[in-house]
Prior knowledge:
The complex is a heterodimer of chains A (157) and B (880).
Chain A: H1 2-11, H2 21-30, E1 32-36, E2 41-43, E3 51-57, E4 60-66, E5 69-76, E6 81-82, E7 96-99, E8 103-109, H3 110-119, H4 121-156
Antiparallel strand pairs in A: 1-8, 2-7, 3-6, 3-8, 4-5, 4-7
Helix pairs in contact in A: 1-2, 3-4
Chain B: H1 5-26, H2 28-46, E1 53-55, E2 58-60, H3 62-112, H4 123-143, H5 146-165, H6 167-174, H7 177-214, H8 216-222, H9 225-277, H10 283-323, H11 332-336, E3 349-358, E4 364-374, E5 378-382, H12 389-396, E6 404-409, E7 412-413, H13 419-425, E8 426-429, H14 440-444, H15 461-475, H16 501-511, H17 515-524, H18 534-551, H19 553-556, E9 559-561, H20 573-578, E10 580-582, H21 596-604, H22 607-626, H23 634-639, H24 647-656, H25 667-675, H26 682-685, H27 692-707, E11 717-719, H28 731-736, E12 738-740, H29 747-761, H30 765-773, H31 786-800, E13 804-808, H32 818-829, E14 834-838, E15 850-855, E16 858-863, H33 865-868
Parallel strand pairs in B: 5-14, 5-15, 8-13, 13-14
Antiparallel strand pairs in B: 1-2, 3-4, 3-6, 6-7, 9-12, 10-11, 15-16
Helix pairs in contact in B: 1-3, 1-5, 2-3, 2-5, 2-10, 3-4, 4-7, 4-10, 5-6, 5-10, 6-9, 7-9, 7-10, 9-10, 16-31, 17-30, 18-29, 22-24, 22-25
Amino acid sequence: MSLQRDVDALRAIPLFAKVEPARLKLLAFTSEHLDFEPGEVLCRQGEPGDAAYILLEGTADVLVDTPRGRVKVATLGKNDIVGEIAILCDVPRTATVVAATRLHTLKIAKDGFFNLVNQFPQVAVEIMHELAARLHHTTQRLTDVSLRLAELEARRA
Amino acid sequence: MEPSIFAFIRKYSWKQQLLILGLTFLSFPPLYYSLELPKIIINRALGDPDGPWILFGWELERTSYLFALCGLFLILVLIGGGLKYVLNVYAGIVAERMLRRLRYQLYEHVLRFPLPHFRKVSQGELVQMINAETEALGGFVGDAFAVPAFQGGTLLTILTFMFMQDPILGLAAIAFYPLQIWLIPRLQRQVNELAKRRVRQVRRNAERISETCSTIREIHAHGTARWELARFSEQLGTVFWIRFEIYKKKFLIKFLNNFLAQLGPFFFFSIGGWLVIHGDITLGALVAVVGAHKDLSAPWKELLTYYQTLYDVRIKYEQTVSQFAPPGLQPAELLTGEATRVPSFSGTSLRVAGVSLLDEGREPILDGIELRFDLPCRVALIGPAGGGREELSLLLAGLLVPDSGRVLIDDLVLHELPEPVRARKIAYIGSQPTLIAGTIEDNLLYGLKQRPLRGAEPEGADKKRHARDRREAAASGNSPDPLDAEWVDWEAAGIRDPAERLPAMLAALAVARLGDDVYGFGLRGPLPSDRPELAERVLEARRAMRARLAADERLARLVEPFDPDRYNTNATVAENLLFGMPVGHVFDLERLASHPYVRKVLEETGLVGELQRVGYRLAETMVELFADLPADHEYYRQFAFIAPEDLPEFKAILGRATIDRLDRLPAADRDRLLDLPFKLIVARHRLGLVDEALQARILEARRRFREGLPASLLGAVAFFDPDHVNPAASVQENILFGKIAYGQAHAATRVAALLGEVIDAQGLRDVVIEVGLRAECGIGGARLTLAQRQKLAIAREVLRRPELVILHEPTAALDAADQPLVREALLHAFRDRSIVWSLQDQEWASRFDRVVVLERGRVVAEGTFAQISMPAREPAEAPG
């Protein structure tokens, strides 16, 4: 049953890893499969995001516009997620994502995701745990970097 | 309108009333003799054993005499009854005609109300008055003379008969009439008073209901349903208590009437019995009197009721009529008149001479406006909202009548011109136009329907019906114009050749930028059944579409074509089984399995059990996924196969049996499960429940369904056939002949673009727009968006090409991107005509010859754009 495959794909995403399987199943059922041809754009840098995509098959290129032109910064593959931040808060897309091969994705719409979260606060708590962990990680790294920076500046002075 | 109901009746139906009276008088002799005969039967045929028994000069044997008399009695009853039948039907016709006339007149008066009056009247009340409350008046008209004549005459006949038998008995019969005459009307009046209160209350209810309908969005947005329910409940309660009082009084009257009527027999048997014993009257006479008395109470009651109704109806009529004659009612001639000749506006002038307009509080909205423009001319009205721009626009369009002063064109006073004459010359486009219920085309042509051009020419049975309808309309003083005549005055729009009509409509739609929308409606609309030549072109387009899809693998993925021999994974199970469009309501895609023929096919192909198992699995999944969701959750509407209220039931069904023992379930449960899988779409739902083996069996059922379809059901489904158009499917479905695939990025937009290319290449765009013109707009245009309504209102006037167009912020409801385009297109469309445009955007006023600045109801500046934008004027005063 391909629904089960979608649930497995969702569970492989760290953001959803701790969410109850029954809820993931509902999320999978209410999400749609979307195929992209090579060269087709999943999302465009600077545009508001309304969905996240989980890559089920194929690869996609992440491109960032810089003053020197468009630069490819990463390639995404199976079970990677595109635009997870967009379904959590209103920020413009930070990069353009283009299908590199024929791409098979599961599209998680922001509305659908929020419906789920509103109904089952437990899901929100689990996601919050995951985000908090990431924040903790980021903060720690920032602290390290700040220390290093202070060291460097002290050395220069 | 006539000041009183009797004046109304006299004026419009005196001839019919005379006929009714004549018929009434004719019915009395048979009545009298039908009372007389029983007496003769009892006294002579039965009571007198010696004879001679003579009838009309012939001497008869006793038994024959009896039967002859009985036969005569029967004949008289028949004649009396027959006359009454004719009288009733005729009185009914007269009543209905008068009712029709009254409603027509009231409706005509509504059309003549001055516009500001509509702010004061409630729609619900008008509806209630014209529809419901006139009913009683109409009923009364038929009875106005007939009832007093007939019932009074009947009463008199019976009384005469009684007095002829015995004056004392006669007196006994009417002994209590004075009491009744005094008492009953007094009670009845109270009842009527209550009834009137009830009517007013019901009107208020009607008003509340219509208010609810019009403010429904506010109610939901504010969550005030409970308050509204309480309010309505309170109103219903008021009606209840009034009714309660009415019942108490009404049945008291009934009780008194019955009691007093029963006192009659008491007197007859006591006094009459005494007289019979003493031989003063015969037994036959007493029996006849008792019989006659029974007939007496009915006319007597009718007369009392009539008297009350009369009192009531008089007041009701006067009340109603006064409601429909507000001050400022337009003369009737202006509504439909055609007499006035109006010259071409070009070379004349438009003058506003000392025009003032007051609001309800007699405060000036416009104050002594003086303007003069030589036509043709383009005038911009600017100034702050509420400064009088809208009112001046309406005045210039002739839609408002000034309180003093005049608007003149040449030397014709605008508000004295008959409306059809004025409307052909002047158009008005406001900021909140409304549409009529009908198709887009009906709305587009609405401005060309001032009068019937050629009479309808029906044939055969229609001709007879047509003539009858005309006659009857004339008898009720209704409109003489047949609705099925040719009303659309194409020549008024400057179109003489029928071949130019469609292009003219398309051009008008293009000005309003409504063409794409109508094209969209056309794609979703059905193929016109009256254009068989289109079929081949649509098939051509279908083949072209197929070729385009086949040529490019990327495109091919976007559409899954209908193939009689393949299961379409982007269509529902029901669509796959039927493989066609249902026509009418015989086959319902939502509940396909409940149709006996479908059921039979499923049984023959052994699919019933299989689909029930799929249904069981589906129910399991639904229960699992949706069990914790509240009933009003968005997901139910979007994704669920089971309505929230049915979920517990399915849960119970699942609990009753396991999947391999479905036979244990009651038949009703199995039917419920069988219904479920029909909405499954393999590509969309990804539940893996309809595997390839099952798909093959559904294909088998599809074949069987089609082959075995009984003749009686042939018309109920239009099958998909690659080589024929499908009359029940839309234009788009016919060309695409397949389903847009799920799960392909941007499939809908890409297919739409491709479809557009194919349609253009086949030259079908105009045809599609033509189909779109037949799309229904809904009541008040409810099926269109606000912008579409506004655009349609613009296109409607563009098509008409009147000499003078008055516009008040006509593009306000459009998308910001559309606004400047439509404005420029409008200026271009009316380039050789006169335009008065009330607008917000001061910059844009530079496009006009003259600019008038209105503030607080006065003209504060007037001149060319350059003149009024002189630095002398404070820019701050200009609107943004």
